[in-house]
Fold this sequence. Notes:
It contains 13 helices and no strands. By secondary structure, it is mostly helical.
Amino acid sequence: MESFLVAMNAVIxxxxxxxxxxxxxxxxxxxxxFLQKLNKMVFRLFYPFMTFYNIYKAxxxxxxxxxxxxxxxxSILLLEVILVLIVPRIVKENPKRGVIIQGxxxxxxxxFGLPLTxxxxxxxxxxxxxxxxxxxxxIYNTTSVVILxxxxxxxxxxxxxxxxxxxxxxxxxxxxVGLVFFFCGIKVPxxxxxxxxxxxxxxxxxxxxxxxxxxxxxxxxxxxxxxxxVLSFKxxxxxxxxxxxxYMVGLRELELFLLVAVYGTPVAAxxxxxxxxxxxxxxxxxxxxxxxxxxxxxTLFLWIFFMKSVGLI
Length: 313
């Protein structure tokens, strides 16, 4: 019963925010145009506050171990290499190849992983998760561009554009500033830290509300032959593999949970506009985001329940 309650308390708030956003959109309280503008505001303004604040307030005695950072980064890169070699042998349509590869390795760890970790472990875990975000987001934003360009008939990836896009990422900018303040011991006045904290707390509910309001369920049937195997592998098989490997290299409790959160959270919402603008199958990318978001509320519950039941967390 304790394991069940931990899982329920962690997942239900996410489901509520998403359902609330979807309901408000259906009832006409918010429009698509409003949600798109709100989405841009959350990404450009609120996310940097969240990454900065969670790193800034980190406890120096509870920083992530190097093994977690190295294993997570290396495993993502290795997974991408394997997918680039295997997926083109199975999927024949070039625009779908990059989208499927991105859909498997790129998770919404920022939106789901950080608040989910706090929900299960408490505020002390936020600093570890925020530090891990800097590694994960850097790899995601760099390699996603490269992979989509690889399967785009327009040409090869431009290293200069990739580098500029990484530098312009608001989450990384907030994380870098947070790291500078943290390691240099720079103190933010209480009068400024309070609003920064409040903006940070607003980020996840707003982002999930927007995600719920932008969910679309049209034209899913024709892509079921891709959606079912891709999301089954992403949300169930891949986290199980990484859980075993992580345990074998010595990761425990919070570290194991973060690894599952990196691999078992829904497909990153950012993968949809990227695919649309880089020659990928935008429709399939959007469906992967939608279905994985809905399905992950169930699979994440099962992962938390399982890990709690067997004593891994």
